[in-house]
Amino acid sequence: MRGIFSSLLFLLAVSPALAADPKPVLPHLWPISPTTAIKGETVWYSAKVSDNEPLASCKVWVDEEKMLTMTIKKDVVTISLAFDSAGTHTLRVVCTDADGYVVEGKRTDVKVSTVSPHVKVGNRIKMGCPAVVYPNHPCTAVYYYGADGKRHAFPNERVYTSWFKNFDGLIIVSQAVMSEIPLGKNVTYRPGERLVKFSTNTVYAVSFSGFLRPIANGEIAASLFGKDWTSLVEGVDDVFFSNYRVGYLIESTNDFNWKTAQSETNAIDKTF
């Protein structure tokens, strides 16, 4: 009898038929963006979706009045819209996956103005991207809006991350808004954050106001930046050399202090 009872316990523990079905993992929707627009201008809106199953369909409610089909591209859904009136409009995304599970995103307010929205000094701005983006598409470029009223491009992600840890807080603007802002000089590496090297053997420290300070030799570089100083060296294409100005040679450890250069250049505007 004891043997039969033990066998039943074993079957209950291991039998898939007797085990409880796992709870399904429902899709999750991140907020749709951007949240600003200009009356009559077409803007690409997108939202990220996570799900264990492929998405079957996604739609967006516009002002809770009409539902439009969105384009699915892996874990991102997009749609292009133009509002014909100024004021606050709403968008709400609803997605269904291949198992038939439905998830509804939170209602997002979109402020639509009759003129270009004001971009504040210090904002990082970019255009919204369509569903299919080819390499070097203009929407992938990120700019810093400077005190000079111009947009300054980050040449690549390495330059960007010398100033910012992540891409949180980007302001998404329309193509029309972006074209209204004149283009300024490129953003350079943050002073004191990296060493740079072009096609020559010279290694530079980035100093105040975007000056490149050539380092005389490896011993001085090691004294200033530590024995692993070579790990700080970033290769830069010669086409970007003109973004910088060349300063005096660093011939001793007294000629440069990277901590001072970093702390006193806490804003990109100070490098122009």
Structure description:
By secondary structure, the protein is α+β, with helices and mostly antiparallel strands. 14% of the residues lie in helices and 31% in strands. It has helices at 2-14, 157-161, 175-180, 218-225, 258-264; strands at 28-29, 36-38, 43-50, 55-62, 66-69, 71-73, 76-81, 87-97, 102-104, 108-113, 124-127, 143-145, 151-153, 171-173, 195-197, 203-206, 211-214, 233-235, 245-246. The longest helix is centred in the N-terminal third of the chain and has 13 residues, at 2-14. It is elongated and about 70 Å long. The N and C termini lie far apart (87 Å).
Give the gist of this structure:
The chain is α+β, with helices and mostly antiparallel strands. It contains five helices and 19 strands. A hairpin with a 5-residue loop joins strand 12 and strand 13.
What is the strand and helix layout of this fold?
Elements: H1 2-14, E1 28-29, E2 36-38, E3 43-50, E4 55-62, E5 66-69, E6 71-73, E7 76-81, E8 87-97, E9 102-104, E10 108-113, E11 124-127, E12 143-145, E13 151-153, H2 157-161, E14 171-173, H3 175-180, E15 195-197, E16 203-206, E17 211-214, H4 218-225, E18 233-235, E19 245-246, H5 258-264
Parallel strand pairs: 2-10, 11-14, 15-18, 17-19
Antiparallel strand pairs: 1-3, 3-7, 4-5, 4-8, 6-7, 8-9, 8-10, 11-12, 12-13, 15-16, 16-17
Count every beta strand, where a strand is a DSSP E run of 2 or more residues. 19
Q: Main β-sheet: number of strands, strand sense, barrel status?
A: 6 strands, mixed
Strand content: 25-35%
The outline comes out as elongated
The number of domains is 3
**Which bin fits the share of residues in helices?**
10-25%
CATH-level-2 architecture of the largest domain: Sandwich
Radius of gyration: 27 Å
Helix count, DSSP H or I runs of 4 or more residues:
5
| Helix/strand order | HEEEEEEEEEEEEEHEHEEEHEEH
Mean pLDDT over all positions: 85
Instruction: Provide the structure class.
Output: alpha+beta
Specify the oligomeric state. Answer: single chain
How widely separated are the two ends? 87 Å
- Which segments are poorly predicted (pLDDT under 50) over 5 or more consecutive residues? 1-19
CATH level-3 fold name of the largest domain: Immunoglobulin-like
Just give the CATH class of the largest domain: Mainly Beta
